[in-house]
Every structure is written in structure tokens, then in C-alpha cells.
Amino acid sequence: MKIIHLNDALEQMNKPVPFNITFVTCDQERKKGGEIIKLDNVILSFNENHLEKLGYNAPAKNTTEFSKSPRHYEHATRNLLLQNGLKKKVHIRLILEFNGQKVFY
Questions:
Q1: Which of 37, 53, 45 is nearest to 82 (CA)?
Q2: Strands 101-104 and 3-5, sheet pairing
Q3: Positive or negative torsion for Cα 4, 103, 101, 53
Q4: Lateral strand order in the sheet of 87-91
Q5: What is the pTM of this model?
């Protein structure tokens, strides 16, 4: 299996090209996690202006005007947009594989 550095994987994620990702869940507040999730054909949620071209459904918009900034870079998280319009948050250090390549950092 090929190996990719986390920085290289994050660079590739920023492009409006679908990718496959495998990661581990972790929720320290609820003391849950350890589930391995594999998602195919996802993009980062900030690439929403490319949705129609890629064949994705539009995500549901937040109805509140007082939403907080997610501060993804501070918390080392990213929102992934699935083809059905749902979003899934992932912590970048819990990524195991990116496009079939093992991730290390």
C-alpha cells in the first residue's frame, strides 16, 4: 500500500475533485468512538460552488443567523460533503487512508 503525508492529502482535499477517505470516529465529551468510517466520493464542504458540476445534492442551509465559526484550522477538523447533501466532520489526525493511500503525519 502506498503512503501519503497528511499535508499532501490535505492539499489534494482542497481541490474540487471527489476523493475517498477512511477515518476513526472520536467524541471525547460523550466518551464514544473507535468506529472506522469509509466514505467514497466526498468533497470538502467549502467547494459547494462546484456541486452541480460534480453531481452532488445541495446541503441543507442553517436557518439560524447566529451560527458560530467552526474554526476548522484551529481545531484541526474539516467538513466533508457527501453526495446526498449531508455533511460529516472529521478530525484530520484521525484520517487513516486517503484515496487508498495510508496517511501519516
A1: 45
A2: parallel
A3: negative
A4: 3-5, 101-104, 95-98, 19-27, 32-44, 77-81, 87-91
A5: 0.76
- pLDDT in single tens digits along all 105 residues of the chain: 799 999 999 999 988 889 999 999 987 778 887 889 999 999 887 755 545 555 555 555 554 444 556 665 667 888 888 888 788 889 999 999 999 999 998
What does each C-alpha distance from 43 to 11, 14, 39, 64, 87 come to in angstroms?
Answer: 12, 8, 10, 24, 10
Q: Quick check: 19 and 9 in contact, CB under 8 A?
A: no
AA letter at 29: E
**What whole-number distance in Å separates Cα of residue 43 and Cα of residue 81?**
5
Contacts of 98 (CB under 8 A, 6+ apart): 4, 9, 12, 13, 19, 20, 21, 22
